[in-house]
Amino acid sequence: MARKDDITGKRAMSGNYRSHALNSTKRKFNLNLQKVTVIEDGKKKTLKVSAKTAKTLKKQGRVA
What we know:
The protein is an alpha+beta fold and 64 residues long. It has one domain (13-60). 16% of the residues lie in helices and 44% in strands. The strands form two sheets. The chain has a two-stranded antiparallel sheet with strand order 1-2. A two-stranded antiparallel sheet has the order 3-4. Strand 3 (33-40) and strand 4 form a beta hairpin. The protein is elongated.
């Protein structure tokens, strides 16, 4: 299963490791995924969302 935010659709970004000699090798910046129970249409649903999305949902009061 892909490391993807179920609500926003955000995915991991790619970049480079950089050494002091400025050598570069590819790396991945993974999301900080959390399992969150969300109330949707009166039903509880478990979703994998990023930490920022979880914070927004909690602020909106949609987290169970």
